[in-house]
Amino acid sequence: MALGKDYATQECSIARALEVVGERWTLLVVRDAIYGVRRYNDFLVHLGIPRAVLSDRLRTLTEQGILEKRRYQEAPPRDEYVVTERGAALWPALRALSQWGREHAGAGRLRSFRHADCGGDIGPYGTCADCGTPVPVADVVMVPGPELDTAPNDPVSRALLRPKRLLEPLETEPAHLAH
Amino acid sequence: MALGKDYATQECSIARALEVVGERWTLLVVRDAIYGVRRYNDFLVHLGIPRAVLSDRLRTLTEQGILEKRRYQEAPPRDEYVVTERGAALWPALRALSQWGREHAGAGRLRSFRHADCGGDIGPYGTCADCGTPVPVADVVMVPGPELDTAPNDPVSRALLRPKRLLEPLETEPAHLAH
DNA sequence: CACTGTCGGTTCGTTCACTGAACCGATTCG
DNA sequence: CGAATCGGTTCAGTGAACGAACCGACAGTG
Fold first, then answer.
1. How far is the CA of A175 from the C1' of D5 (A)?
2. Residue A172: which pLDDT band, with cuts at 50, 70 and 90?
3. Alpha helix locations (H) across chain A?
4. What are the residue boundaries of the HTH hxlR-type domain, all occurrences included (chains A, B) (predicted)?
């Protein structure tokens, strides 16, 4: 969505949130960032998003303080986009959407989320089903489910086939090993 | 967002959810429906949405089983759009977005959500801060906050100035009493 | 009866955002 | 030297959103 003037008239915190993250692709970029994707090219191949749109979303999210642009190499200059605390705070919303997608939009058991401390499933309210405590995003482990494609053809999807703690950087295979 | 072919390639329940409710305006229509808005004209004046877009969203949401079109008057034929169980299941996602909007998108205390049974605030994980139990959407009361405009000029916003239990139909003033 | 207003839309021309392909500069690898 | 990687920008074409106008069926008023 391209909102601005339209949603701005709405006196509603949901509308305010959607002004920032409601545009097409934006929440999926944040999802990837929380999954540990940090580099332009990884977002690109994983999302299948037009380059111009990705550039725009990364810039906007950085301006909004949801991502942070960080130089990780000087020659040639390369930046990575790391999710900030403000961005990680979107996790409850993403988790709730994920749950709804599983139960009401025909997405089966593609991935599940577990409590890193005890291995318990994370229930409908974001708490651990085993120990009952609310689970902060950094303590969540994403576990691939049985209905996930076992041989995807982009390196990011392949890297996400292994269980992975959220927020930690994703390590993709070097390009020369690609399919 | 108009997704379909694009997000469909994504193996992710978040993407599946956004295929259904990720388009511009859609989540705000669902929010209003959960707030008790049911009639075409009430959505129209409250959202300030173009008529063609509203018609499209109501049709799509009805096809998806998120709203249900229900005849409430025969002459002239009038239908209302009532949120279904599947639609109400989006409440956790909307609540999480609302919370994020309050804390990270500059929306102050516009509205708060309380547990109808005990009056406790609903915390970050959708549970009641007082009694600790998860609160189903039907037991949530929306309470207007101090930063809300006290004299809005559309009847739906005025009706929402009073505390209101979610899902229950919103009663707007008759048109001839308008501003 | 004529007039006005309500309700729930549809139609249409304009504007705006997304799309996909091409291109680019700096650098590294073989 | 030539090819590939990385992180973009530019640009023409398309599709969606926007806003205003219009419309049919009916209710209420005088």
1. 9
2. confident
3. 5-8, 13-21, 26-35, 40-47, 51-63, 85-88, 91-104, 155-159
4. 12-109
Looking at every residue in chain B, the average pLDDT score rounds to 91
In order of A14, A47, A169, B98, B151, the CA distances from B103 in angstroms are 11, 28, 26, 9, 25
Q: Which of residues 14-73 of A touch strand D (CB under 7 A)?
A: 39-42, 51-52, 55, 58
Determine the distance in angstroms separating the CA of A114 from the nearest CA of chain B, rounded to an integer.
Answer: 16
Residue B176 has pLDDT above 70, yes or no: no
- All residues of chain B having their beta carbon less than 8 Å from the beta carbon of residue A103 are 89
pTM value?
0.94
pLDDT at B5: 46
Question: Over the stretch B138-153, which tens digit does the pLDDT of each residue have?
Answer: 999 999 999 999 999 8
CB A29, CB A43: distance < 8 Å? yes
List b or e across A65-102, with b for residues whose CB sees 16 or more CB atoms inside 10 angstroms.
Answer: ebbbeeeeeeeeeebbbbbbebbbbbbbbbbbbbbbbb
B42: nt with nearest C1' to CA? C7
Instruction: Enumerate the residues of chain A whose CB falls inside 8 A of the CB of residue B3.
Output: 24
The pLDDT of residue A5: 47
Q: Is A110 helix (H, G, I), strand (E, B) or coil?
A: coil
Closest residue, chain A, to B110 (C-alpha): A12
Q: Which pLDDT does position A2 carry in this prediction?
A: 45
pLDDT the model gives residue B153: 85
- Does strand D come within 7 Å of the CB of B175? no
Please give the span between the terminal C-alpha atoms of chain B, in angstroms, as a whole number: 35
Residue B78's SS3 state is strand
Instruction: Say what the pLDDT of residue B4 is.
Output: 45
Q: What distance in Å separates the CA atoms of residue A130 and residue B75, rounded to the nearest whole number?
A: 55
